[in-house]
Amino acid sequence: MISSQEALEIILANALPFGEERIPFLEATGRILKESIYADRDFPPFNRVMMDGIALAYQRVADGQTQFYIENIQAAGSPQRTLENPHNAIEVMTGAILPEGTDTVIPYEKIELLDGVATLHEGKVTPNQHVHFQGTDRTKNDELIPKNTKITPVEMGLLATVGIKEVLVSKVPKTLVLSTGDELVEVDQIPAQHEIRRSNVYTLMSLLAQVHIKSDEQHLPDNKPLLKKKIKQYLNTYDCILCSGAVSKGKYDFLPEVFDELGVQQHFHKVKQRPGKPFWFGSKGSCSIFAFPGNPVSTFVGALYYFSAWYTKGLGITPKETKAVLTEDVIFKPELTYFLQVKLKSNSGSLEATPIRGNGSGDLANLALADAFLILPANQEKFNKGTLYPLVQYR
Amino acid sequence: MISSQEALEIILANALPFGEERIPFLEATGRILKESIYADRDFPPFNRVMMDGIALAYQRVADGQTQFYIENIQAAGSPQRTLENPHNAIEVMTGAILPEGTDTVIPYEKIELLDGVATLHEGKVTPNQHVHFQGTDRTKNDELIPKNTKITPVEMGLLATVGIKEVLVSKVPKTLVLSTGDELVEVDQIPAQHEIRRSNVYTLMSLLAQVHIKSDEQHLPDNKPLLKKKIKQYLNTYDCILCSGAVSKGKYDFLPEVFDELGVQQHFHKVKQRPGKPFWFGSKGSCSIFAFPGNPVSTFVGALYYFSAWYTKGLGITPKETKAVLTEDVIFKPELTYFLQVKLKSNSGSLEATPIRGNGSGDLANLALADAFLILPANQEKFNKGTLYPLVQYR
Q1: Which of A191, A255, B93, B259 stands 20 to 30 A from A91 (CA)?
Q2: Looking at residue B104, what is its pLDDT?
Q3: Contacts of residue B222 in chain A, CB cutoff 8 Å?
Q4: Dihedral angle at the C-alpha atoms of B298, B304, B306, B309, nearest 10 degrees?
Q5: Are A265 and A290 in contact, with CB atoms under 8 Å apart?
Q6: From the CA of A5, how many Å to the nearest CA of chain B?
Q7: Cβ separation of B45 and A365 shorter than 8 Å?
Q8: Beta strands A89-92 and A104-107: pairing type?
Q9: In terms of CA atoms, which chain B residue is nearest residue A393?
Q10: Which residues make Cβ contacts (< 8 Å) with residue A229, sequence separation at least 6?
Q11: Between 1.10.3720.10, 3.90.105.10, 3.30.930.10, 3.40.1570.10, what CATH number should domain B30-40+139-170 receive?
């Protein structure tokens, strides 16, 4: 059996770039940019008025002039005006281009306007004040957003500003979520006493939707010939299959043999961790298969930790590692990486993790009380209050 | 002029619940639950086998019996079998109902199976081991998810388990994003020297999409009669309008007078903050209007801070307050709340905020270098390295 760290390394070694596609920029929030975005013009593209008021030549103010005849108006969106008489001023609006012949803006708050003449209030005027000069933020052809940036609302504004209507982003893998197990019935059915409703597929689909993957889902009974026939098709259709169930030692846990018979390369089966030990990972061609044990906490933590790492690498980004401080001593003796359910709290700028113990891998309800899994290493038995550990967070 | 804190209080006082709607549960990720979800059965609903192996009566092991004839198989998804002879055992699969007459599971790893007889390995057997007994996680009718919970993949799994195909969630406000300003051209146009492309609307739409609001957008020129005519319609159509531009002192900043003439109640105009001082907020009937100044950083921080607070309250949830530690001394003298752009870094479990100074409210490009705004209070001039301040985060 391999360690959780080895499992992660094998999975990452099997994560290849998903390729690229050009999509309408309005659909790009949350996607990963696959081209650098450059300034198409200077930022700002012209000497831009920053306050509503008047524009004049600073030298006149320095020379002691306090009254200025308003000879014109420069609105935002109008072509540049020219100050005809250097002793005059032009009324200017925020966002307008600064008129030719002027270099300084005096806001309305600092002048008296009467009969077309502006009288300056007393007080200091700074040359070039309230003008955002062309190119002071960025110069034409400067890189504004590097490749492999996750697109947030800020990047959306920048894409719009430079006129990128369609943007090159990472593709996402075509993904199938597959449940097995004859004890499962559909959400709208009433289960018999020995049955339960399907839930892992919906947890996984929701997790995938959060990272912009619209997945398909299927359910297959514990029937080996049928599993083999269907999975053969899926391997040709999908880039990724997330399975839940049928990977342990049970008489009807057919998946590992089915994968083997279909020529899927097994990279590992079983990981020294709790929960989720019977996790199976393999690939065939461009299809990667994560087969998680069917207990809900096992499937969930497996997808959260291993699938997310694989996905992130395929997108071409490096995830931020988050750590939290354990608020209680924890004893865990088995030589397994322990994914401990915790509730998170931000306290004085530091993230605190309090264990929320449930009844193990089958206890779905307990997940609703927690926010994350703290990752406690296998080579230790006692985990001290006040120590930092990495975590995978879902809330 | 009111303080940022007063502005926030007025906005929150004007945030009413958005109402409720029932939607397919598969579309509910990220939405706010408006009903409590209860267990429809015990969790687990039956004594559930947790390991693949054999089930037997513990008393036989206590009595020293080490060999058990396998009289049947209990698969997951099959109705409950009964152990006919109490000296025998039944093969059981993970997820199966525990057979009648048995109380303990011995996993395959701890037995030798030969010719239909299981011989136990030496070692301790604990009564009731590897059985997840009915009702040990939750009892029928227990609350599983309280009302006003944000639905994550975990809640999706629980909704599926209890058979909720349609779920009651908070409605989201029907929202319009409205830009004004004659200097603006569309994303696919080439701007003249004095023009720029529309970007704030796309930033806002992206921000709204992240919180599950599919907004509409419009652009209106600096034409008062047209503004009045169109906004009159919008007031009857939308629950919320986010405007960018036309709220300052400029000659074409028509919005405040248009709102006044349309009977919109102004709650405030101008807030002691930087950036975003000329922010205007009002309401008419069930429509709330956030009119932000048009500079991109002003609009963005206004929506992130004020709109988000209003939205969160309307949904019925309390946002988590996050704070970060300032990593450098900052001097800011004006008596204004200062929204300082910062880059965040998690360091030893604590969140650190490093200022990323740009060229003010017009500097959209600088936002791409930062992750958040640290909120520095107005009644202070010096902000010391190592101090904690609240923040609004966008990345």
Answers
A1: B259
A2: 98
A3: 75-77
A4: 180
A5: no
A6: 21
A7: no
A8: unpaired
A9: B152
A10: none
A11: 3.90.105.10
User: What is the average per-residue pLDDT within A236-247?
Assistant: 96
The predicted-structure confidence for B53-63, as pLDDT tens digits, reads as follows: 999 999 999 99
Whether the model clears a pTM of 0.90, i.e. scores above it, the answer is yes
pLDDT digits (tens, 9 = 90+) for A71-96: 999 999 999 999 999 999 999 999 99
**Positions of chain B with pLDDT lower than 70, given as ranges:** none
Chain A positions touching B350 (Cβ under 8 A) are: 349-351
Q: What is the pLDDT of residue B310?
A: 98
Residues A299-304 have a mean pLDDT of: 98
Say if the Cβ atoms of A300 and B153 lie within 8 Å.
yes
* A391 — pLDDT class (breaks 50, 70, 90): very high
Token match 């604990």: residue? B126
Residues of B in contact with A24 (CB under 8 A): none
pLDDT tens digits, residue range B127-159?
Answer: 999 999 999 999 999 999 999 999 999 999 999
Element (H, E) at B145: strand B143-145
ipTM over 0.90: yes
A202 vs B contacts (CB less than 8 Å): 25-26, 156-157, 159-160
**Beta strand ranges found along A211-263 (DSSP E):** 216-220, 240-244
DSSP 8-state assignment for residue B32: B
Cβ proximity of A120 and A66 under 8 Å: yes
pLDDT for residue B69:
98
A30-57 b/e with 16+ CB inside 10 Å = b? Answer: ebbbbeebebbbbbbbbbbbbbbbbbbb
Res. A349 pLDDT band, cuts 50 70 90: confident
Q: Provide Rg for chain B, Cα atoms.
A: 31
Contact B78 A194 (CB under 8 A): yes
Among the partner residues B80, B136, B300, nearest to A194 by beta-carbon distance = B80
Look at the block and give the residue holding tokens 């009111």: B2
- A-chain CB neighbours of B109 within 8 Å are 249
Whether the Cβ atoms of residue B64 and residue B122 lie closer than 8 Å to each other: no
Inter-chain CB proximity B77 and A249 less than 8 Å: no
pLDDT score for B347: 87
CB B247 within 8 Å of CB B237? no
